[in-house]
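Hello,

I think I submitted the zinc ion job twice by accident. Can you confirm which output corresponds to this input? Input:
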Amino acid sequence: MKFESIKPRKPSRGSLTAQYAEINALLDQKALSHAMQAWDNARRAYESWSALTYLHFAQDTTNADYKAEREYADALSPFAIEMNTNVKKRLLSECNHADVEKHVGAHAVRLWECDVTTFAPEIAADLEAESKLEARYTEILASAKIEFDGKTHNLAGLAPYTESLNRGVRHAAETARWAFFAEHAEELDDIYDRLVKLRHTMAIKLGYKNYTPLAYRKMRRVDYDAGDVAHYRTEVLEYVTPLVARLVDERRRANGWETIHYWDEKLIDPAGNPKPAGGHDYLVAQAQIMFDNMDKRLAHFYKSMNDGGFMDLKNRPTKAGGGFCTSFPTDGMPFIFANFNGTHGDINVFTHEMGHAFQNYESRHQPNIDYLWPTMESAEIHSMSLEFLTYPQMDLLVGPDAADRFRRMHLIGALEFLPYGVLVDHFQHDIYANPDMSQAERRATWRRLEQIYMPWRDYGDLSHPETGARFHAQGHIFGSPFYYIDYTLAQCCALQFWAKSQEDYKASLDAYVKLCALGGSAPFLSLVESAGLISPFAPGALLTAVNTANAVLMA
Ligand SMILES: [Zn+2]
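Support: Only one job matched these inputs. Its output is below.
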């Protein structure tokens, strides 16, 4: 299968209306099995087209055709959601649930019960406006042209300087980076203000007290709630923040610095963060050897991704930032996107997105489209665990001399991520509980919470992030509200996979592959249990995972 051969048909209001009229006619005739099949086919076709449209825009945010196509998708999406919501409502109200479950399993029914509470035609225009604002955020960040070291960089291209071994270079690079954000601060604050108010308005129209409970339902969180998440944040604060404070201080002492500034934090290894031993082509080739050594299922899958052109990993000007995995459910193939810049981050993003891709591929035989991806906290287990499960192969990617140092750096990074992750989550809970906050109050909220979860943070003379504007650089806060806690829940599970892999690597990898194949056929806590992991919400689970990591770092 080749990426170029994926050419989904462009839908329209007319084509969707005709397609859904057929599905509804089958439901009228009580032909449940045929109706469900036709509906699943329709959703797959739409999702494949939508995925390709958003991928194209991310590949070049300045391409006028891609942008027009994305805007067309933004406008059509609420109509498609409406059609799907109507089918879900009919299946839930007119059909015997046991009959429906025979076709798709019990979990899908639970997901749809959740979905139908997140849409009404009254919010269709708001959803389109929301997508446009999210796209504008992506465009602004992708437009960065930062002069540094005699070259012009986008944000991904500037990043290697922010972890340079040379302190002056790191400081200068962060200064340049925050000058870019300061220049766009007014528009970024304005975009965020509009997004918060739009989301609040949609929640009120749907009968919620604010956006938070709506967001939980949009994320399809059916087996835990905001109370569980708040408790998890306090566990991170109690057990992880002091540990990270100690790790940060150890680095301060190892480097002989009086204070550790913001621009020092990314230099995790005092000898210099280990880098990939080669560029894009090298990593792509070495990865095949890595997966060949690990497991034939992973090896075979990676070969089809690479041979079929289902990867776009090179950094280019005007490409959207970050990394992601998307998929084409008509064809059963995923696609991974990243911006390699020569740092250890290339390895992290590659193994991470490959984890998502492998899960999606392993789940391709699941009976309906709702199970091709799990909810995001479960999806991040697949991606973050593969970062750990590739540890034994790291000499292939960074060279034999740097492999131990890479693993240590990654493990420290995994722990340091947790306080930041829950900060992003706590911030959003406060923001959406008080949608009328001024922009200054939002920034003050960020800075106040940052001082609680990350008390070591010292911005020095970087006056812009000192105001609380650090959140402008976190895309999820704009484009994927309430997503972030999912990474921290998954990290607790990924650390457990890693701990198990040290005792019995093969058993751990097999359990991982099995979990991937389950896809989204069950909710988070059931998936966690089925893989023999302890729920991050269970008392002591986080502490045990973190202590295991700490013991290795201290050894
Ligand atoms: Zn991910």
